[in-house]
Amino acid sequence: MDAAGPSSKRVIMYRAWERRLEDVRIRDADVNKLVMNYLVTEGYAEAAEKFQIESGTEPDIDLATVFERRAVLRAVESFYLKETIEKLNRLDPMILVMNRQIDFRLQHQRMIEMIRAGEMEMALLYAVDEILPGIQNNVILFSISSCLFCLALENYVFLIDFLKEFIRTTTLFPLLGPSQRLKLVSQVNAAILTSQNHEKEPKLPILLKMLICIQNELDENAAFPLVCDLMTTELPDTACPYHLSF
């Protein structure tokens, strides 16, 4: 039964709220479509193929393209940045043309992997030969980089030692971590999906965001058992009739 709470909000008791949830009917087919959408959007090609066989759910995109995209993402995850660029160009030559920022980040990540491997000399030469030509429109950055290269010619050993210490003690250090690579994987995945006219984000996270927004709006006018853990979607303990925090 609903009641009036101390804050003058309408209070919906736990049992009443639970009964209302039980009255909601969600079709298995809709849940399966949601799962399939997540698998194909995130590039889990093998899982999507198995799920199609087991559930009979047809994907909203050709699975062959998902396998091709998965191959590109694996190349990024495995540090094969040169192979990634080649695969992207075979998949769709316009992806890197239309996403110059992605192209630059792939080149940048290649340099970072060289630095991680301790190949400072190779990283410096790669920056000069491959990265600088793509940023010549930035006069200041190009000038500084040109001066740095001249310095390298004058005192190469000193510069390499300086770069090692600079990377270790500055904000560049996090770029060497795995999170930077995962971020790049996500960006490449989104770029491919956009080129294929597919949503860049699965529907499931969008629905969770909607759940949070709706709960916040409802919480302004009523006290009810909020879903506090999105991982389990469990409601508060039955000993507490309503829960106001989130």
From TrEMBL:
Q: Describe the location of the CTLH domain by residue ranges.
A: 65-122
Q: Which Pfam family, any one of them, does this sequence belong to?
A: LisH
Q: Give the source's domain of life in one word.
A: Eukaryota
Q: Which PROSITE patterns match?
A: CTLH, LISH
Under which name does UniProt file this protein? (wild Malaysian banana) hypothetical protein
- The record lists the organism as Musa acuminata subsp. malaccensis (Wild banana)
